[in-house]
Amino acid sequence: MASTAPNRTGRVILQDPSELTRHALRRARQAVRCLPFQRSFYRHLETGAMSSGELVALDDWPALTQKRLNASQTEDHLIWLIQLGVLRREVDGQGLTERVRITPLGREVLTDWPEAIPSAGLTHRLVHWCRRHRPRW
Fold first, then answer.
1. Are 104 and 86 in contact (CB under 8 A)?
2. Given this model, what pLDDT does residue 40 score?
């Protein structure tokens, strides 16, 4: 069944759900390649949850990230990955926690890169920055 979305003129157009899924996968793949997290970070999230504070406190952070991040930077990246559907907040008996886990979409994105995530080129990084920081631009 197709979904509807308004176009620029305000009219509603039909969109194929498989096209929306392809678009979400494309955006998520680009983000994962542009962010500083190593494949081992996502592998860790496949088996358990982690918070931004826990990641920053690790002594072996180079195994999980390409560069040293503070808690605020890490949380910003995690929130972006949540918005894209790659990660989700962990839920406990009290509700949502600060810890994140990988989603089925995130697992699908990472199947292309079992060992290492290739770094994005300059053009892809620029497009990613615009999507993230100027989404309506």
1. no
2. 94
Look over the chain and give the mean of its residue pLDDT values, rounded to a whole number.
86
Q: Crossing angle of helices 71-84/17-34, nearest 10°? A: 160
Calculate the alpha carbon distances from 63 to 6, 43, 137 in Å. Answer: 44, 11, 35
How do beta strands 12-15 and 3-6 pair? Answer: antiparallel
DSSP assignment string, 63-127: GTBSS---HHHHHHHHHHHHHHTSEEEEEETTEEEEEEEE-HHHHHHHTT-SS-PPPP-HHHHHH
3-state secondary structure of 2: coil
Please state the pTM of the whole predicted model.
Answer: 0.81
Q: Are 128 and 120 in contact (CB under 8 A)?
A: yes
